[in-house]
Amino acid sequence: MPEHLSTKPPTIACIGCGAIAERYYLPALARHPSVLEKLILVDRDDARARAMADQFNVKRWVPDYHAALDEIDAAIVALPTNLHHPVSMDLLTRGVHVLCEKPLAESADKAREMVEAAGKAGVVLAANYQQRLFASFIKVKQLLDDGTLGKPRAITYRVGEVFAWPTVSGFYFNAQTSARGILRDRGAHVLDIICWWLGGKPTLIVSQNDSFGGSEAVACVQFEHDGCTGEVKLSWLSKFPCWYEVACERGAVEGDVYDYRSILLQTGSGRQRRLALPTREKLYTDIAYRIVGNFVRAVAGQEAPIVPGADVLNSIEFTDECYAAATRFDLPWYDIPEVQHGR
Ligand SMILES: NC(=O)c1ccc[n+]([C@@H]2O[C@H](COP(=O)([O-])OP(=O)(O)OC[C@H]3O[C@@H](n4cnc5c(N)ncnc54)[C@H](O)[C@@H]3O)[C@@H](O)[C@H]2O)c1
Predict the structure, then answer these.
(1) I need a labelling partner for 80 at 20 to 30 A (CA). Which of 91, 173, 216, 231 fits?
(2) β partners of residue 315
């Protein structure tokens, strides 16, 4: 059922008409007809912007957001990650509200600047860390916060999926534009959820990846926070169950990362049961619909953003620390020839 937008619709620019715009934002914006009516698409690739405008019945598109600055109240920044900071800073300092894609920025310093600029200008900076809306993850957060399971003792989080995202620009693997690899990209959600569950930034113990200086496809991070240890394993090269588990003093909770409508709960008795979770969001695009509706109402001052930019600083800082401390996995199949050749 459409959400009520009891506000004059803002003029929004969707900056970047790539894969996330097509699969997430535009279907969501199409369910807010009064917002869609005034929407301006922005993409330097004119053919792409035109195709998205045709597909979603958007009346206007421009190749450069500067051409729309006089008209827009707000913008969705759905650009390659290296552009989040410069474009958002330009918008925020001009008093334009921003909903920025994840990761908010390539470093915590840049993300902090964005948060400060929004504060100074008195505008909204929201971040699309949409997994915070997963009913499963919200339930885990509640169970940890209300003490039902006691204190968390160990967190395990695994994501193994061969990279198949239909990127339009291919920026993820472009050394000029990439903001590193899987940890900054897929890990943005994972580390954000972990910081959110724990209520703070963990202390890094070990960070390893398969990078030879550029983007990494496999990463492993171990951490500790207030008596709880944790391990995250991420891979773009192999497929393994995308699974999380939080073991606590008096029970445990686990689940498939993408089954956001149920969890497996084990309480003191040791018996594990599946808990179905009531949620309005049945599809991924329902989550986008809520994020966009929330942004529109936040711009109108009617709601706080679900994930304000400031809320993701911990996880971005932790990601920076993981990269700064990272060592390469032992990769003997590469190292042995070097030894043999006396290098
Ligand atoms: N929240 C999530 O789960 C999620 C999922 C996928 C992608 N993302 C994020 O969304 C952002 C975009 O990713 P994508 O996969 O849609 O990328 P993409 O490669 O599919 O599309 C990027 C688009 O930006 C356009 N572009 C590049 N530079 C531009 C410029 N200077 N001005 C105007 N347009 C420009 C390109 O022409 C392209 O159409 C990334 O930051 C990514 O991390 C988030």
Answers:
(1) 231
(2) none
**229-259 confidence digits (pLDDT tens):** 999 999 999 999 999 999 999 999 999 999 9
- Within 8 A by CB and 6+ apart from 335, the residues are none
Closest CA to 72 of 90, 97, 36: 97
Check the CA dihedral 103-105-106-109 and report its sign. negative
Confidence of residue 87 (pLDDT cuts 50, 70, 90): very high
Residue 62 phi/psi, 5° resolution? -140, 155
* The CATH number, out of the four listed (3.40.1010.10, 3.10.180.10, 3.30.360.10, 3.40.50.150), of the domain defined by the range 131-281+316-333: 3.30.360.10
Q: Is the CB of 45 under 6 A from ligand 1?
A: yes
Please state the atom number of ligand 1 nearest to the C-alpha of residue 84. Answer: 41
CB atoms within 10 A of CB 217: 17
CA atoms of 301 and 38, how far apart (whole Å):
19
The amino acid occupying position 183 is L
Distance in Å, CA 176 to ligand 1 centroid: 15
CA distance 127 to 106: 14
| Helix, strand, coil percentages, rounded to 5, for the chain | 40, 25, 40
Secondary-structure class of domain 12-130+285-309 per CATH: alpha beta
Read off the pLDDT band of 268 (50, 70, 90).
confident
Band (pLDDT 50/70/90 cuts) for residue 270 is confident
216-227 per-position pLDDT tens digit: 999 999 999 999
* Ligand 1 atom nearest to 81, measured from its CA: 41
3 state SS of 222 = strand
pLDDT digits (tens, 9 = 90+) for 162-182: 999 999 999 998 877 766 899
Q: What are 130's two structure tokens?
A: 């949409």
